[in-house]
């Protein structure tokens, strides 16, 4: 066991008392708020999460509301955060909580782990922050801080390294303030021992203990293998307008952006001539086609390189709508009722401005 972890506890707690950022879910650390915020924080920075959190909690103020929410409303509330399966899993978990736990998240780490979408990180956060149960959380921030403090060259992407750190932290968790200790480590990683660029060691409460600082190896730690290259995909995105409405369609139930609404498209970049032929072959009467520019969207493993066209049509055969599973919606409904992933934001903002 690394005794150094035991030594940092009082310094971190003291620092946290004076430096913790004021956050809505911290002011009221009720289990549901902690859960929602921690799931959101897995993919987005704290500052950006605030707005999403307020919107979500206002619309779905408790677990019952989440369990009963209509899917389109739920996905719309998650719009912009990506990783839509996370909110779908939250709803499944909420339904189980209503059925098995009288609508309250269980105050039990092992029971939390059994709920859909709740892994060791989220279970640890809910248990420690909302219920004062002394279990650690190990996220990227905690791993970075820990490996710098101990000047360890372990590969932090390995599950075994995360597990070992979890056990080491479990052994030294302060029983009276487990939630604050976890948050202090995460907060230090987010605001002082930062991931990109030089950390602010002059502001660090554990600089006197930090081995990476004393060995002058801060920028070499933590160790991560280089990321695999993302797959490159080309796409044509169509904003098809017909009688003042625009076509959207649902993506397949499995795979990237599963089950979400999207603008129809073609799985390659096509030029005006080819597009025009393809649409005419489908029976559409074209009134105008206008290029609306190129865009790029980066997912975790894939990059989309897109070209967009605004297509005005005078006639759309019912068979075309059926064969392509299109739904025709007006601008306002597209904005307010249907969640379109941020991959399409370039084209949605074009629509907003015409
Ligand atoms: S001294 Fe610097 S490198 Fe060490 S934990 Fe503090 S901020 Fe990170």
TrEMBL record:
Residue ranges annotated for the HhH-GPD domain, each copy included: 40-191
Catalytic reactions on record: Hydrolyzes free adenine bases from 7,8-dihydro-8-oxoguanine:adenine mismatched double-stranded DNA, leaving an apurinic site
Family annotation (InterPro entries): A/G_AdeGlyc_MutY, DNA_glycosylase, Endonuclease-III-like_CS2, HhH-GPD_domain, HhH_base_excis_C, HhH_motif, MIG/MutY, MutY_C
EC number of this enzyme: 3.2.2.31
Alphabetical UniProt keywords: 4Fe-4S, DNA damage, DNA repair, Glycosidase, Hydrolase, Iron, Iron-sulfur, Metal-binding
GO biological process: base-excision repair; mismatch repair
Entry's cofactor comment: Binds 1 [4Fe-4S] cluster.
Statement: the UniProt record of this protein carries the keyword Zinc-finger: no
Cofactor(s) it depends on: [4Fe-4S] cluster
Stored SMART domains: ENDO3c
Bilayer-crossing regions: none
Domain of life: Bacteria
Family to which this protein belongs: Belongs to the Nth/MutY family.
Function: Adenine glycosylase active on G-A mispairs. MutY also corrects error-prone DNA synthesis past GO lesions which are due to the oxidatively damaged form of guanine: 7,8-dihydro-8-oxoguanine (8-oxo-dGTP).
Name of the protein in question: Adenine DNA glycosylase
Source species of the chain: Mobilitalea sibirica
Gene: mutY
């Amino acid at each position: 066991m690394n005794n150094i972890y035991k030594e940092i506890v009082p310094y971190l707690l003291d620092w946290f008392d004076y430096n913790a950022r004021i956050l809505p879910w911290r002011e009221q650390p009720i289990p549901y708020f902690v859960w929602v915020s921690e799931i959101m924080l897995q993919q987005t920075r704290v500052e950006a999460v605030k707005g999403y959190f307020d919107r979500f909690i206002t619309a779905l103020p408790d677990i019952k509301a989440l369990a009963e929410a209509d899917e389109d409303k739920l996905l719309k509330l998650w719009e912009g955060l990506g990783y839509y399966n996370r909110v779908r899993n939250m709803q499944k978990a909420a339904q189980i909580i209503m059925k098995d736990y009288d609508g309250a998240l269980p105050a039990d780490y092992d029971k939390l782990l059994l709920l859909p979408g709740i892994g060791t990180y989220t279970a640890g956060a809910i248990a420690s922050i909302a219920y004062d149960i002394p279990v650690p959380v190990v996220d990227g921030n905690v791993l970075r801080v820990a490996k710098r403090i101990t000047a360890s060259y372990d590969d932090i992407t390995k599950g075994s390294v995360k597990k070992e750190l979890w056990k080491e932290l479990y052994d030294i968790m302060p029983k009276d303030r487990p939630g604050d200790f976890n948050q202090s480590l995460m907060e230090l990683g987010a605001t002082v021992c930062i991931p990109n660029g030089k950390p602010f060691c002059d502001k660090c409460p554990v600089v006197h203990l930090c081995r990476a600082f004393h060995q002058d190896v801060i920028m070499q730690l933590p160790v991560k293998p280089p990321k695999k290259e993302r797959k490159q995909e080309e796409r044509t995105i169509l904003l098809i307008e017909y009688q003042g409405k625009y076509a959207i369609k649902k993506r397949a139930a499995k795979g990237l952006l599963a089950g979400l609404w999207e603008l129809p498209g073609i799985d390659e970049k096509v030029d005006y001539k080819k597009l025009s032929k393809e649409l005419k072959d489908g029976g559409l009467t074209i009134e105008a086609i206008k290029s609306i520019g190129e865009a790029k969207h980066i997912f975790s493993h894939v990059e989309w390189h897109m070209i967009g066209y605004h297509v005005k049509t005078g006639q759309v055969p019912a068979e075309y709508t059926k064969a392509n599973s299109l739904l025709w919606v007006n601008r306002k409904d597209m904005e307010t009722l249907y969640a379109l992933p941020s991959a399409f934001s370039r084209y949605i903002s074009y629509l907003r401005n015409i």
